[in-house]
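pinging the channel bc i need a second pair of eyes. not urgent but kinda urgent?? the chain im working w is below, pasted from the shared doc
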Amino acid sequence: MFRLSRIDAQLLLMVLIWGTNYSIVKHAFHEIDPQAFNAARMGIASAVFFVLIVAGRRAGARASIFFSPAPITRSDWWWLAGLGVVGHALYQFFFIGGLARTSVANSSLLLGVTPVVIAVAHAGLGLERIAPLHWAGALLSVLGIYAVVGFGAELGGAHLTGDLMMLAAVACWAIYTIAARRLMERHSPVGVTGLSMIIGSLLYFILVNRQVRATDWTAVDGVTWIAVVYSALFALCIAYTIWYAAVREIGAARTSAYSNLIPLVAMVTAILFLGEPVVGGKLAGAAAVLSGVALTRVGRTQAVMPAEE
């Protein structure tokens, strides 16, 4: 009989947080500039991560999820800076910009194909061997993306621009995930995420300074502030912590399987609360994307280099 373990329950909570976050953020854009909204939530999340890292350092080995005793070298700081630029500043810029211009369904499905991109990149770098079934899954996902994005797309249209920005976000997150592996071997996952987020947030504030200064923060209503705080604490802090705690406890492969559920939650939430239309072609594309991602999980073979799991 199947029993839901503690970590499985936490991962389902993570899916619910990330899946519903799309609609919550999208709704807030009606009142506040998207990039200004994101600057606020990144600032809050960075502050929380800083407190967690300091607390973890004081707790020492009792909080290894947040702190590792290995010293941060000058080379590590350069890697953290690079991760901050690509994995947080640029990723968040493209993610929020894309979400503001396209639908929740398109956004979540495009980001849902990230595991496929990472796996193919691993194969290209010689870090992992990929079975034929995995390549079939990658091809199926690409066809699904075309069904979701390509049908009826107009050059220069807002939706197409948003979809392209989401694809750029996928590329940034794939680079971040692969590059972070070097630091994850010596440092705590949340420590790497928190420090790189703090660095990335500083650059992000420079990129969107105009939007932040143009926003009348005193006119922002309470509901939107709740969305900012919710997205910062739950989507950027709690969900990230659950993800990395699960990777450490049950491995990356089993943890990643839960990410396949996020687009489903995001699409259902958008239909119910944002009134996004249900289109047959998009549903077919969604099925292809999710099936392709599932095949890539089944078709993975042994890593050439030692994997985290």
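so The longest helix spans residues 222-250. and Residues 6-303 form one domain. — does that match what u expected or am i reading it wrong
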